[in-house]
Every structure is written in C-alpha cells, then in structure tokens.
# Entry
Amino acid sequence: MTVNSTQPTNNLQNRQIIIGIAGGIAAYKSAELVRALQDAGASVRVIMTRGATEFITPLTLQALSGKPVHLELLDAEAEFGMGHIELARWADALIIAPATADVMARLTEGRADDLLTAVCLATPAPVALAPAMNQQMWKNAATQHNYQTLQSRGYTFFGPANGKQACGDTGPGRMLEVPELKAAINNMFQSGVLAGKRVVITAGPTQEAIDPVRYISNHSSGKMGYALAQAAVDAGANVCLISGPTHIKPPERVRFIPVTSALEMHGKALTEAPNCDIFIAAAAVADYRPIEIAPQKIKKGDANTFSIALVKNPDIVTDVRKNRPTLFIAGFAAETQTIEDNAQEKLVRKKMNMIIANDVSQPGIGFNSDQNEVHVIFAGPEPARHFKTMSKSVLARHLIDVIASAYLNQPV
# Structure
C-alpha cells in the first residue's frame, strides 16, 4: 500500500491573527484554536466580548496566547498600549469563533459599541466568522438575511456544521471543529490570482562600499518587498526575491538571491527578468556609488572635510524595460514631497505599467515601519487608488491583487 505523505502547505507561519470570541458554549473550542494557530507559527491576539467571559476566562486565553486579552473598547490602559485602531491595523486576519447570532446581527447593522465590532469595522484585514448557535436560530429568516448581507460585504463564513448541539437539538449551527477551522484559516492566505506566474521582486537597500568597513546606504528595511514576496507566493506565483542586506528571514517557497551592491542587484535582475511574467521593483537602490573603493580603512586624518567622488549606478528598471519592452513592471516611489507628481513623472520616465508611491517622511509609515500607506498610479486609463494605513503584510495582499488584475487585463 502506498501512503501519501504530502502535507498541506503551512500558510500560518508569522501571520498575525486576531481571534474574536463571542458569548456561546462553543467558546471552549477557541482555546484549542488559539493553541493550534500558535503551534503553526502564527502570532495570536484575543478579543473577548463580555458574554464570552461567562463561558471561558480571559486568564485561560492570556496563558495560551502569551498576550493580554482585549476586553473593553474604552480601556485607557489598553488604548495606551495597543489601542483598537492599532490592533485593527496589526491583524493579517480576524476570525470570530464562535460567531453568535447576536454578533452577526450587530455587524450587519454596522455597530461599533464594543471592542470586537469596532475592530471589525476598523480593520483592513479579511474577516471570517465561524457561526455557532441553535439550529432554529441559524435557520431564522433574520439570521439568514444577516448571513447573506455579511457575505455580500466581503465577510467569509466557515460553517456552520450539522450535528448534535448543546441544547439537545440536531441540525445546522455547530461551530466547526478546530482542525477544520485551522485548515480554513490556513486557506485564507491562498488566493491563486497569480497561479503559475513567474514573479521577480527586488527588495531592501543596497550598500555601496567606501572602504572595507564603510558604505553608503539608506534606511530601507526590506519589509515591504518581503511582504510582497509572501503575498505573491500566497497568490500561487513562482517567486524570485532579489534582496539587498536586511535582517528579515526570506519567506518560505521563494527562490532567494542575496546581493549587496546596486551593481550586483542590477546584474541579477537582468539575469532573472527574461524568465518572468511580472517584475516588481521594491528595492531602495542607491543612485550613486564611490568611483573607487579604498582597499584599506580610510583613516580620519586632520582635515575637517572629506570628499568622495561618486558615479551614477545603472538604473535597474530602465534596463529591464529595454530588454523586455512588453514585460509587466510595477515600481515603487519613496518620496518626501509632492508624492503623486513625483511618482507620475517616474512612472512615465521609466515606462512602467504602474507605480506605488508612499511618503517616507511620515512617522509610522516610512522606512522600518510595520505599516504603510500608498498611492497606486497606473500607466493606463485606470484611476489612481489610495490605500490608507495598514500593516505591510495586509497591504501586500491588496497590492498583489491590484497587480494581478492590471497584469491580466493589460492589452495583449
């Protein structure tokens, strides 16, 4: 007998997931779900409604998650630490398990009078509900209306399952079991919009050597490029990530090419670009490099001034475009003033299909931040889009969706 040992891909590693727990008997399963997600490599934070605390204690969830449990919307101490808006931006996904009929009704009405519903409204991350209620409550016309309404607004539903319920009834309304929920959450991060496509992404800074111990560089952390690489993998693409020096572990399932200088990145990009469908230039490449690299450490000396002669580095996007006139290219513009105008000029000059611009002078969304806010400008007639502040991982998924749509709809 042949045993199939193929394991499903783990898409939960390093994900930031909020588990929202409403007041229902199925809340006991939520503790196991938190543990299962963390065992898979996810970072989990828990929001509990007041009703949920009647079924399972916050202390239990705190012990399992290793983080304080979030309970109140207007909690001064919590708002000082990770307030509800920061919590909403932090999440890669929000899962309400169990989702009671009451929570569904309040979300349908757009209520934000407790922490869970407020975060649901404030998060740009995908929200999924795992319903848990009496079978007749699930079948009720009001609940079915709310179910259909929430689906139409983009909420995802996991279940409910059929079976025997705590009240003794049998029918639809049981919350899915933890292994089923874990698998469903894992699959949330697989869109398939770039299935089979080959994507090359440049990321991070470059370092231009002055001597053996000094170099010219910038503040880029590589976080946005690495998030894009992860999102492209989740979208089903075959991804090659060409990265300058960073402190980030490369995403799994990408072909990783580390480089140091702009010339190295330029060479690798031109080698990889002929074999790709989409080229995403997210790296912050140094515009200039020293003409000469001192073979030994340059001593300080007595002079008050010191000059280094620089030469312009070759432009990666420009040269990729010369070699591949029809390749789909998305670039980035890190600006500090007249953001959209500068990005538009760069888009035209480098003949890109689209450009993603952000204001790196703004605290919280500049270099090294975990969040970003961007404008997306297209070469074609499609109007520009603005993505407000959100985590770079969530933003990356939005951007990959935009890139996929623009790529698939471009004229042949």
User: Anything to note?
Assistant: The mean pLDDT is 91. Residues 227 and 393 are 5 Å apart (CA to CA). The radius of gyration is 25 Å.
